[in-house]
Design a protein that fits this description.
heterodimer, A: about 90 residues, alpha+beta, Arc Repressor Mutant, subunit A, about 15% strand, B: mainly alpha, Rhopdopsin 7-helix transmembrane proteins, 3-stranded antiparallel sheet, 7 helices, 3 strands, elongated
Chain lengths: ~90, ~230
């Protein structure tokens, strides 16, 4: 994660972390995504609004889980990235 | 002997076949971009999808404008045969209307791609749309205005896609640049389509080549997913 990531790669990386963990709280997500607590908020809001992840409450603790749409995005990521890059749509 | 028959216009329908292939390619790009939009809710992909949808629909009307119903009468007079061929008036009206819709949708599609590439602000968009309406009205009577406008828009897009290729050095970006380069050249050739029929056919062939290059890009994208 040294190379500067574009927005699509950020979305993919965060989804992969959530997918691997199955359910994850905000603090480990910040740590694993290599972002600050302030910079992660817009990404989380973006993922929630796009329906790629959702919030769930377990024992009064908020977790993030990946949705079927989020899983579909991970599968399609390579295609979407090349399509967006080839037409300069990022 | 009198007969009525439907023809596909010039070149025995070869141009219509080219245009049918353009519809397929533009639809594939539009559908894929819409799929990405549904997933990411990024408006760029939505407008990109609409732009190619406009282009696909425009070519349906282009094919419609090629169709001609002819009425043919053969008069046998001693050893000679005189053939009188006439076209129905209502068919001319359909051709005229279809050609206007084709021009309008094609220009709107190209203009949308221009807005996406330039990230044009709302106030400037209004000015561009106003100018486009003027161009559409002028191009109803002057084909060269239509083709010349497309040459300008497509040349700008070609240079944008070339810059994009220089930035990321991807084969896919090069294919998009090449596709739009061929499309620009095709419209440049079509400016002179009124002089000789072969010029029109050459322009149509170049246009098809441009869209086929864009199709190759889509196929490469599809294959990339398997890697």
């Amino acid at each position: 994660m040294n190379k500067k990531r574009n927005k699509l790669e950020m979305i993919r990386d965060m989804l992969l972390i959530i997918q691997k963990a199955r359910k994850i709280r905000i603090t480990p997500l910040i740590y694993k995504a290599n972002l600050s607590s302030n910079s992660i908020k817009p990404y989380i809001n973006d993922l929630l609004s796009k329906g790629l992840i959702e919030e769930t409450l377990i024992d009064k603790t908020k977790y993030f889980v990946i949705t079927p749409k989020g899983n579909e995005f991970i599968q399609e990521f390579n295609k979407i990235k090349i399509f967006a890059e080839s037409y300069g749509l990022e | 002997m009198a007969a009525q028959f439907l023809t596909l216009g010039n070149f025995y329908g070869i141009d219509s076949l080219f245009e049918f292939l353009v519809i397929i390619v533009a639809s594939i790009i539009s559908l894929y971009s819409y799929k990405v939009y549904r997933m990411l809710k990024n408006k760029n992909f939505k407008y990109f999808s609409i732009a190619f949808l406009f282009i696909a629909i425009s070519f349906i009307f282009k094919i419609l404008s090629n169709l001609t119903i002819l009425h043919r009468v053969e008069i046998t007079n001693l050893n000679s045969v005189i053939v009188i061929t006439s076209q129905f008036e209502y068919m001319r009206l359909i051709q005229f209307a279809s050609f206007i819709i084709y021009k309008t949708l094609y220009l709107l599609g190209a203009l949308l791609l221009f807005f996406i590439a330039t990230k044009t602000k709302k106030q400037n968009k209004i000015m561009f749309v106003y100018l486009s309406i003027l161009v559409i009205i002028l191009s109803i009577f002057m084909n060269f205005v239509f083709y010349l406008t497309l040459v300008f828009i497509l040349t700008f897009l070609t240079s944008y896609y070339y810059e994009n290729y220089k930035k990321n050095k991807l084969t896919n970006s090069f294919l998009v640049f090449l596709g739009f380069f061929l499309l620009s050249i095709s419209q440049l050739v079509l400016i002179f389509s009124g002089f000789r029929p072969i010029v029109e056919l050459t322009g149509d062939m170049l246009m098809l080549a441009g869209f086929l290059v864009l199709l190759i890009n889509q196929i490469k994208i599809k294959r990339a997913a398997k890697k």
